[in-house]
Amino acid sequence: MTEQQQQRKVTEHEEKIQHAKQEVPGQEHKEETHEEKERQERRKKHHEKYECTEPCYTLDWYKGSEKLKDYVALITGGKTGIGRAVAILFAREGANVAITYKKHDEEANKTKELIEKEGRKCLLICGDVSQKHFCEEAVKKTVDEFKQLDILVNAAFVRAKQENVENISEQQLEHTFRTNIFSMFFMVQASLEYLRKSHHASIINTSSSTGYLGHPSLLDYAASKGGIISYTKALSQNLAKDNIRVNAVAPGVIRSPRVKKLFKEEEIKHHSQKTVLQRAGHPEEVSPAYVFLASPESSYVTGKILEIDGGLKSI
Predict the structure, then answer these.
(1) pTM, entire model
(2) How far from 247 is each of 86, 233, 303, CA to CA, in Å?
(3) 57 an active-site residue?
(4) pLDDT tens for residues 91-111?
(5) Catalytic residue among 71, 101, 194, 221
């Protein structure tokens, strides 16, 4: 083969390689286009799901990874709403869960079924967390059942609308603070003996965006939720010597049975428009924050307030 023939053969080979390279990007582009369509479809379904007015609890796409394997959690107000969603995810991550509730056994039993569906145990404790003796009883029952306590979630609360401050009765005021604030003191006091024995103790309080921003017709509720923010920061300092981390979650406009009962749909949508995401959230969108704060992944996090509010600007 002459030198010219060899050169021609090399040139033809290079042209084939170049032609092949030109074809590959086109194929990649088609694949990327297909993937992008799938992403868009997933985003659409995600958006449609969270546009519904009924609360979503179970976060079906979330896969547990034993972050809380063999932990024991006590959740006040765990019957519905955020408490239920947190209980489900804790169980999915391997924890046994005790929940307190004041009434409506049917809803509490539904939550228990959802927890047991995750392969973990659930203890239901009915009573009023505004009473110290019940808080002590709830902790005792939890430890008697599960032999330990690692996580305390304070999620129980009451909330009542009152347009005029002069119409807030002494009874309403006391009821709000006993349930929203006093109960947290009672539960912590009763739990400390057992939390100090845990190698991964965590207390997670539940505040609210209302605690930061206020609300014209939720004056006592706003004051109590603001107090929880300060309480959380102070308690984290107090219990650091015991290696007990204390944090809080401050949800924004979250669809729950109580919100639906207290506000008309028009009001919920109005408040939701003040968020960057332009919609209300769901309990299952808040629960992963509690998993993070309860797990060893947040071992260097204490005294913090996680705001889960869709980018809330103001109410």
Answers:
(1) 0.85
(2) 15, 7, 5
(3) no
(4) 999 999 999 999 999 999 999
(5) 221
